Amino acid sequence: MRVALISDIHGNAFALAAVLEDIARRKVDATYNLGDHVSGPIAPAETAEMLLGLDAVSLRGNHDRVVMAGENMDKVDVIAAAAIDDSARSWLGTLAETASPEPDILLCHGTPSSDNTHWLQTKTQDKRFRPSSTAEIAQQVSGHTHALLCCGHSHVARVVELGDGRIVVNPGSVGRPAYTMADPASAERLSPDAGYAIATRTRSGWSATLLQIPYDHEAAALRAEQHGMAGWARHLREGWPR
Questions:
Q1: How many Å separate Cα 170 from the centre of its chain?
Q2: 30: helix, coil or strand?
């Protein structure tokens, strides 16, 4: 079985189109979408329209939750809430926080118990991020026996083996990508290319490949600038130093 993992699109329809085209070429068995779909200063309505027609298991991310609640919204949430229509709102309202589409697969946005907690990265006292240790990561799956555990939220792509045959995969971000490498501590350069992952089940267990797909970064950056989001525009052109 081969599955595509996408996450953190953040309203970037340009990046999403490129990723979906690449997924179609690879002929996967399923696509799993881990949340934070429309909040962003690029193309929320277009992104929602694409996702409404997508055959995928989709989750609710923390930004999706905030948009639906209409409270404590960041500027990107306000932009998305104003742009999407009733059909998109209805779809967002149907999404679950976690899912298990196969007996050995668990999907979440942040961790299995929180959509706003980073799983494979840990925030330090100086508000920077470091890779979480294997022990820290394993603490979040107490009581879960799934062989493939999938998360998003941090925008940093990484695959971690837990030592018992299970793996935790963060596919990175489709719409606001961060580090080129799986381990940000060793990253020497950033990439603005759209990130996603392919996970493959064989007789020996699950493995995952992290992918980055070129797309029209400039078109996305110009949309961000039109909404007064210069920081987003810079990250879309250069990559996000998460």
A1: 7
A2: strand
- Residue among 16, 15, 26, 12 at smallest CA distance from 4: 26
**Residue type present at position 123:** K
The amino acid at 61: G
Q: What are phi and psi of 13, to 5 degrees?
A: -65, -30
Q: Which helix (H) or strand (E) holds 108?
A: strand 105-108
Helix, strand, coil fractions of the chain, as percent rounded to 5: 30, 25, 45
48 has pLDDT over 90: yes
User: Tokens representing 134?
Assistant: 């294997």
For the chain, what is the radius of gyration of the CA atoms? 17
CA distance 12 to 92: 17
pLDDT reported for residue 140: 84
Q: What is the pLDDT of residue 143?
A: 80
Phi, psi of 16 (to 5 degrees): -60, -40
The pLDDT confidence band at residue 182, using thresholds 50, 70 and 90, is: very low
Q: What's the number of CA atoms in the CB half-sphere (13 Å) around residue 52?
A: 17
Model confidence at 98: pLDDT above 90: yes
- When the pLDDT of each residue in the chain is averaged and rounded to a whole number, the result is 92
CB 176 within 8 A of CB 236: yes
* One-letter identity of residue 109: H
Question: Among 7-16, 81-90, 125-134, 192-201, whose mean pLDDT is lowest?
Answer: 125-134
- pTM (predicted TM-score): 0.94
